[in-house]
TrEMBL record:
<keyword id="KW-0805">Transcription regulation</keyword>
<protein>
    <submittedName>
        <fullName>LacI family DNA-binding transcriptional regulator</fullName>
    </submittedName>
</protein>
<dbReference type="Pfam" id="PF13377">
    <property type="entry name" value="Peripla_BP_3"/>
</dbReference>
<dbReference type="InterPro" id="IPR046335">
    <property type="entry name" value="LacI/GalR-like_sensor"/>
</dbReference>
<keyword id="KW-0804">Transcription</keyword>
<keyword id="KW-0238">DNA-binding</keyword>
<dbReference type="InterPro" id="IPR010982">
    <property type="entry name" value="Lambda_DNA-bd_dom_sf"/>
</dbReference>
<dbReference type="Pfam" id="PF00356">
    <property type="entry name" value="LacI"/>
</dbReference>
<dbReference type="GO" id="GO:0000976">
    <property type="term" value="F:transcription cis-regulatory region binding"/>
</dbReference>
<dbReference type="InterPro" id="IPR000843">
    <property type="entry name" value="HTH_LacI"/>
</dbReference>
<dbReference type="InterPro" id="IPR028082">
    <property type="entry name" value="Peripla_BP_I"/>
</dbReference>
<feature type="domain" description="HTH lacI-type">
    <location>
        <begin position="2"/>
        <end position="56"/>
    </location>
</feature>
<dbReference type="GO" id="GO:0003700">
    <property type="term" value="F:DNA-binding transcription factor activity"/>
</dbReference>
<keyword id="KW-0678">Repressor</keyword>
């Protein structure tokens, strides 16, 4: 294994000079710094970050435990987490829980063993927080994004969109388009979905409109359309989905049955990403600032690493933006259950 001593002897400088050159610190000529780095590359030198961390009590690494990288919202967030950390001199261990609590907990334990300085995560759910309690006992700061862990059993910093207010804003837009009977996917499987549903329904009721709650997972657009048609008349004229994949599937299911958005049913959803530009009609969406949420989370985590874990934690609310497109106008035809292809 190549050591700092080997590089120092080859370059004819002290080990301290080599250390400063490789870290980008200290005072020396550009030629000396460049020579040392060239020798380090030639000898295939790799710094022992764990050993360095044991000496300095800091490894300059953080972990990002994310639910699903296949979801563009989380992919954009991960990119921002890595970029923000990199600019601050930190490296990121990227871990995907795939919405499995056991996997999330195992990644937390692995991160602790790897001596990371802190963790950013998008939690799977809010109830079982034993792995977060372990982080607190170890004195490792963490910041959660999206789902909010129980503040009594696992208090911590949190970054979130104002889901309730933004869902109400989306409902108000639908009402302005003339909709009076609107369906909403209400799986109630986590706090984020519940906040959006409650904000949406509260605004509909305030405007004197009728809501149809569909207890079906928000990603399953096909089942949502089936449920609407099975309930029969009077049909809703619009539907809110809290996930764009569900909206895409709903559009495809309506087309399979010979119907169109928004001619037969208007749609709107949360989240936006480049792929939606290829979907016709263009979807009206409430766009979360995925990258902003990731950046704010890392900045808050780095503050905790520098200053220590506080007695009172912060919640950062990142604004979302309503993007009005083509999918939300009032239909000019009624849904027809007999349009399904047999």
């Amino acid at each position: 294994m190549v050591k700092l001593k080997d590089i120092a002897e080859r370059a004819g400088v002290s080990m301290m000079t080599v250390t400063h050159a490789l870290r980008g610190t200290g005072r020396m000529s550009d030629d000396t710094r460049r020579l040392i780095r060239e020798i380090a590359d030639e000898l295939h030198y790799l710094p022992n970050e764990v050993a360095r961390g044991l000496r300095s009590k800091e490894t300059k690494t953080i972990a990002f435990i994310v639910r699903h990288l296949s979801n563009p919202h989380f992919a954009l967030m991960a990119e921002a987490v890595e970029e923000t950390a990199w600019k601050a001199g930190y490296r990121v261990y990227l871990c995907q829980s795939s919405d499995r609590l056991d996997r999330e907990a195992e990644y937390v334990r692995t991160a602790i063993s790897s001596k990371v300085d802190g963790i950013v995560m998008t939690p799977v759910q809010e109830e079982d927080n034993r792995h977060l309690q372990l982080l607190r006992k170890q004195g490792i700061p963490y910041v959660t994004i999206g789902h909010r862990p129980d503040p009594d059993s696992a208090p911590g910093d949190h970054v979130v969109t104002d889901n309730r207010q933004k869902a109400a804003e989306l409902a108000a837009h639908m009402v302005r388009q003339g909709h009076r009977r609107i369906a909403v996917a209400d799986s109630r499987n986590n706090s984020v979905i519940m906040e959006r549903t409650e904000g949406f329904v509260e605004e509909l009721r305030r405007a004197g409109c009728f809501e149809e709650r569909l207890r079906i997972p928000e990603k399953n657009g096909r089942l949502l359309i089936e449920e609407i048609l099975e309930r029969g008349r009077p049909y809703p004229t619009a539907m809110l989905l809290t996930h764009p994949f569900g909206a895409i599937e709903a559009i495809e299911e309506l087309r399979r049955r010979g119907m169109q958005v928004p001619d037969h049913l208007a749609l709107a959803c949360f989240d936006d990403f480049p792929m939606l530009a290829r979907i016709q009609p263009l979807l009206t969406v409430m766009s979360q600032d995925s990258a902003g949420m990731g950046s704010f989370a890392v900045e808050l985590l780095l503050k905790r690493i520098r200053e220590g874990i506080p007695s009172a934690f912060e919640t950062i609310v990142v604004p979302a933006q309503l993007t009005v497109r083509q999918s939300c106008r009032l239909p000019n035809r009624e849904l027809q259950a007999d349009k399904e292809e047999r």
